[in-house]
Amino acid sequence: MVCGGFACSKNCLCALNLLYTLVSLLLIGIAAWGIGFGLISSFRVVGVAIAVGIFLFFIALVGLIGAVKHHQVLLFFYMIILLLVFIVQFSVSCACLALNKEQQSQLLEVGWNNTKSARTDLERNLNCCGFRFFDPNETCSSDCFRSHQCQPCAPIIEEYPGMVLRFVGGIGLFFSFTEILGVWLTYRYRNQKDPRANPSAFL
To answer: What is the CA radius of gyration of the chain?
Structure first.
């Protein structure tokens, strides 16, 4: 049996989808852990993480069933969905790696102004108040607010976005290449004939 054979293509596709299943369960687990320990109170952030995890889980499930049963229709839809995910993820990963300091700062400020619950989490966890300036007349959930001696959150937050974006972009690029590998494997496997099948059967 060579690596380009039917059995090898099937096993590689199954292994790839098992990896996607583990990643999806990890995403859902991290979101649940964040809620359980009170680290994240933003239902929007948690909802997005859980939705991405569930979406990835169903894609992996479709790919796994299609690979095990050599199901032509499932493999076709799996290949198309994986290709679309690759295009989106590759674009987002490149955008994360291409952002400069000024763009990162603007993006952080937009996110700060549009997510009240995430802002509360950051103020509480980082012990800071406000984004650029501390205003003692505004409400704040950090411990330093009781003494009215808080520093703004922007200097603390802006230390990490470059590293985070590089990490996210790198992970995204890695998984985008596994997705294009999955598309190629699916296309190859879909056009191969099962040696155990009836030679006169329609594939």
So the answer is: 23
Distance, CA of 147 to chain centre: 39
Cα 93 from Cα 176, distance rounded (Å): 9
Q: Which residues of the chain have pLDDT under 70?
A: 1-4, 34-46, 117, 194-203
Whole-angstrom CA distances from 34 to 38, 132, 143, 172 are 6, 27, 20, 22
pLDDT the model gives residue 195? 66
Instruction: Please state the three-class secondary structure of 46-75 as a single string.
Output: HHHHHHHHHHHHHHHHHHHHHHHHCCHHHH
Return the exposure string of 127-166: e unless at least 16 CB atoms fall within 10 Å of the residue's CB, then b. Answer: bbbbbeebeeeeebebebbeeeebbebbeebeeebeeebe
80-123 per-position pLDDT tens digit: 999 998 898 888 888 877 877 777 777 777 777 777 767 777 77
d(CA 22, CA 43): 23
User: Within 10 A of 174 (CB to CB), how many other CB atoms are there?
Assistant: 11
Q: Which among 161, 195, 171, 131 has a CA at the least distance from the CA of 2?
A: 195
Query: Is the distance from CB of 15 to CB of 189 less than 8 angstroms?
Result: no
